Every structure is written in structure tokens, then in C-alpha cells.
Amino acid sequence: MAVRIRLTRKGGKKQPFYRLIAADSEASRDGRFLQILGSYDPMADPAKIEIHKDKVDYWLKQGASLSASAKSILKKQGIL
After folding, report:
1. CATH code assigned at 34
2. CA distances from 15 to 42, 43, 76 (A)
3. How many distinct structural domains can be found in the chain?
């Protein structure tokens, strides 16, 4: 099982809210996941980002790969 750190979409129509999750790479975007690693709210001004650094570090040490959007968010937070 290959684990991927990526975003899953939550919220209503035209009000997106995203969770940073660790999930099986074959799972659907809003499907099953292993653990919630943080959240991202692009509608707030400035965008609100909350990351659990210890959980992200754990999954990266386990060999999880990052999606492009997750990598961008983690770089902005200074975790990568």
C-alpha cells in the first residue's frame, strides 16, 4: 500500500474547505483516509492553514509521497 499526503475537499458549494490527509494512493479524493494531518481554508483572508507537524513528519518518515498541492502548502508553512 502506497501512502500519499494530499488534500480532500469539504465544505459547501462555492465555499471550499480542505483537509490535509494521509491516504492510500488508490483511494478516491473524498474517500477513505488513514489520518487527518491538518486543514486549509482558502476563503479566509489570509488563507488559514493548520498543520500537525508531528503527524506529517511521521508519515514522511514512513515513506509517504506528497501531492503537488500538499507540497506547496507544507513549503509555505516551513515544514519542508
Report:
1. 3.30.1320.10
2. 9, 7, 22
3. 1
C-alpha radius of gyration, the chain, whole number: 12
pLDDT tens profile 4-60 = 999 999 999 999 999 999 999 888 888 889 999 999 999 999 989 999 999 999 999
Domain span at 42: 3-77
